[in-house]
Amino acid sequence: MSSPFLELSHVNVARGESTVLHDVNLTVHPGEHIAILGPNGCGKSTLIKTMTCECYPLVRPETRVRIFGRERWDLTELKKRLGVVSAELPGKPMLTTTGRDAVLTGFFSSSTLWPNLRVTSEMEDRADEVLKLVDATSLVKKEVGAMSAGQQRRVMIGRALVASSGTLLLDEPSNALDLFAQKELQQLMRKLAGQGTTIILITHHLPDIIPEIDRILMMREGRIVGDGPKSELLTEEKLGGLFGTEVALMERAGYYHVS
Fold first, then answer.
1. A GO molecular-function term, please (predicted)?
2. Structural fold of domain 1-82+165-181+194-259
């Protein structure tokens, strides 16, 4: 197996005066597809921010964080290796940017193409390639603010991928999407997973978990309380315990649904 993309050992993270991650140990290899499940406030988003060095762990002798084999990163450089799609839809000034320019901003981690940023012909070619990959070529000249929520999410995934090395972190990606857009998102994730993109998905919406995702992390109160194969962890008993409610689970064509 290839060297890990991510290694977290005995990681504790505080936000404000509260410790929100407790003794997290996690190893992820390139090409893995993982879903992180847990109730609101369990620390899922903080875990993603720790992976992207937006949150730093408490300094303790046993703590270790290695990303792509390195313990120290320039954040601008790291953002070019990690494609992150947040739960929020784009805001200003991204809304007045065209689809193609929005994808190009991924090279600079900027909210728009500011005049001081130099876009090369190689960047333009890569942006066109990614727009085709995410089935968004029809959105090249359309302003982001005029797009549907599903179209915006597609462009933001393109933006996340344009400069990355095939690693995609998705934080509640189906938020604000209607049923049709959710289905399109699932199809896009399956396409990317099939092409070898590492996918780490944060969700509490089980239908987001595409069939290609075979490893589940369960989080509760800032701790990883389960880490293993989907077949072992996606059960009525374990999901009911995680979310603190009775669960009726159904699986169809590789997708899971609860009621």
1. ATP binding
2. Rossmann fold (3.40.50)
pLDDT at 100: 96
CA angle 210, 177, 130 (to 5 degrees): 65
Residue 214 to residue 33: CA distance in whole angstroms: 6
User: What's the predicted TM-score (pTM) here?
Assistant: 0.90
Q: Give CA–CA dist 234/251, Å, rounded.
A: 10
Widest distance between CA atoms in the chain: 55
Whether the upstream peptide bond of residue 4 has omega within 30° of 0, thus cis, is: no
Question: Which tokens is 50 given?
Answer: 């720790």
User: CA-to-CA distance for 160 and 167, rounded, in angstroms?
Assistant: 9
List, for residues 127-179, the tens digit of each pLDDT value. 999 999 999 999 999 999 999 999 999 999 999 999 876 899 999 989 888 99
Distances (CA, A) of 230 to 33, 86, 104, 215: 11, 24, 36, 5
Burial of residue 195, with CB atoms counted within 10 A of its CB: 0-12 exposed, 13-18 middle, 19 or more buried:
exposed
Q: Are 37 and 238 in contact (CB under 8 A)?
A: no
pLDDT of residue 88: 79
What is the spatial distance between Cα 88 and Cα 75, in angstroms, rounded to a whole number? 21
Q: Where in the chain is the domain with CATH 3.40.50.300?
A: 1-82+165-181+194-259
Task: For the chain, list residues with pLDDT below 70.
Answer: 1, 165
